[in-house]
Amino acid sequence: MNLSAPPSAADDRRKRRSNDPLIALHHHLAETRRKASATAVVLADMQGVVVAGAGAWPVCEELAAYAPLLAHGTTTEERFADISVSSFEFEGQALILAVRSANKASESQDLFDPSVRGIRRILAA
User: 34-51: b or e for each residue (b if 16 or more CB lie within 10 Å)?
Assistant: First the structure.
């Protein structure tokens, strides 16, 4: 194996890539959505605005709107039982990763930690 050569498409674990950060975020969130068997996955800011998402756009917008309430624990309504959130900061900006899924495995840090690392990598590029 030639270590100085760039990885071939067959060697690369990512199947879809883009140099555009918004498209790269969408691809990343789509993969997170697939792994979680989720209805939608969204990256939102603390004002409830979609930064990027994967899933039906109306569901992503709704998820982003409720994400700050869920991240701060200001609502515990039963209708949000299928939403899991993880908040984090990137360069001083508070962000929220929200997942809507009937699958409770979507609450796992095993899902959130790698996804947040990927988001940070994409935003830092």
Answer: ebbebbbbbbbeeebebb
